[in-house]
Amino acid sequence: MVVSSAPGKVYLFGEHAVVYGEPAVPCAIERRARVTVEKRDDDRLRVHAEDLSLDGFTVEYSSESEETPDVNVSESLVAAGVGYIDAAVEQARDAADAPEVGFDITVESKIPLGAGLGSSAAVVCAGIDAATRELGVELTSEEIAERAYRAELEVQDGEASRADTFCSATGGAVRVEGDDCRSIDAPDLPFVIGFDGGAGDTGQLVAGVRALREEYDFAADTVASIGDIVRSGEEALADGDLEELGRLMNFNHGLLEALGVSSRSLDNMVWAARDADALGAKLTGAGGGGCIVALDESDGTETALKFTPGCEAAFRAGLDTDGVRVEEV
Length: 329
Ligand code: PMV
Hints:
By secondary structure, this protein is α+β, with helices and mostly antiparallel strands. It has two domains: 2-185, Ribosomal Protein S5, domain 2 (2-Layer Sandwich), CATH 3.30.230; 191-316, GHMP kinase, C-terminal domain (Alpha-Beta Plaits, 2-Layer Sandwich), CATH 3.30.70.890. It is built from nine helices and twelve strands. A hairpin with a 6-residue loop joins strand 9 (280-284) and strand 10. Helix 2 (119-134) crosses helix 3 (141-155) and helix 6 packs antiparallel against helix 7. The chain is globular and about 60 Å long. It binds (3R)-3-hydroxy-3-methyl-5-(phosphonooxy)pentanoic acid. (3R)-3-hydroxy-3-methyl-5-(phosphonooxy)pentanoic acid binds at residues 15-16, 18-19, 116, 118, 161, 202, 206, 285-286.
């Protein structure tokens, strides 16, 4: 039996603009998915998942069973979750040249599902690591990033960015530009996350920005300005200048808001964080709903978010410098 874990992520800067070739900086956070894998004597797959949302649920699922899993979250979320596990197992079987091997798999995740925190990438990275190790093969974090990206491509019909899987596999702060992903130096980042319990429709939000950018030159300029913020942000990261990072996060949120991808609940949480003297705050990911990320070394932001209308959960999750790692063998 092998247990591996991998972190979720936030976007410190650059979501949406990254779609048009600008750089972006996702960062791994101290919230992990843990996957336990044990080889079976047959070629079947049995998946047991716990705490996949903040409310928590349990699903006993066998890919060969006809029965609907008895769970308290939507079936589509469960089907998607199991799809990611299947794809991760396929990658592990391929890496170990063991196409017929079956597994018992348990997934535990503290990363809210579908909220832009990279929960699926974390589950896929941890799953590939645990399953390959269980078969006696050790992959590098770069190899896991590549295989996890392929697994996501398969589940998401050819639409996946390398950002989430690379960040989860390597940990730390990452610079993404097109298909080029690199780890970059960063100081300790005291992230606080607020979650509104919802999720935006990434496809629709990306299409909305694309339409604005085509219609208005100033919208195209706004996207390019986000790229400038990312470049300044990289310098602030290299200098370890948290105050400057906070100012740039606030600016980045303003431009995302102008592009129409924020929401009332996200803005409420951003303003609650600013009122609580966070160094900065912005939405993270596609927007429309989901999560904000703030920078605050004190407890102020977390406490303020807990009393903010529309905020369902608030938690501290600093920059995680560890990527995918083995926990138990
Ligand atoms: O919400 P997330 O974490 O899947 O991030 C979406 C980021 C976008 O830039 C909006 C889209 C993309 O594919 O890069």
